[in-house]
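[Discussion] Sanity-checking designs against the backbone

I'm trying to build intuition for which residues belong where. Below is a structure token string of 109 positions. I'd appreciate it if someone posts a full sequence so I can compare it with mine line by line.
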């Protein structure tokens, strides 16, 4: 089963990104995105065949291999980009940002 290793470890940021995008809130569950079972926070993205599973302990985001096609994979990456932006914004507003540089996640919409 394919996966993406991310820096996503904040459940509140995951929920906030879902809210900003108008998605249902993530739910904790186990699903079979492919041939094996994955457990974590499940998010259903429009345009993607199967839900993605976010493991906040490891930062792994697992998805079905049929969603590896360019268009559907792009939707997964855009969602993860939004999660990263929300997580960074939460750190910035809570005074946890180190240094004075700002990074921006840019994705063509």
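Best answer:
Here's mine. Compare freely.
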């Amino acid at each position: 089963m394919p996966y993406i290793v991310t820096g996503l470890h904040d459940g509140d940021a995951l929920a906030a990104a879902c809210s900003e995008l108008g998605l249902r809130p993530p739910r904790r569950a186990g699903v079979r995105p492919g041939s094996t079972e994955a457990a974590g926070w499940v998010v259903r993205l429009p345009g993607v065949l199967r839900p993605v599973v976010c493991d906040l302990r490891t930062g792994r985001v697992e998805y079905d291999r049929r969603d590896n096609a360019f268009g559907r994979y792009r939707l997964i990456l855009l969602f993860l980009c939004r999660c990263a932006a929300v997580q960074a914004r939460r750190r910035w507003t809570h005074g946890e940002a180190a240094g004075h540089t700002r990074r921006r996640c840019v994705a063509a919409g």
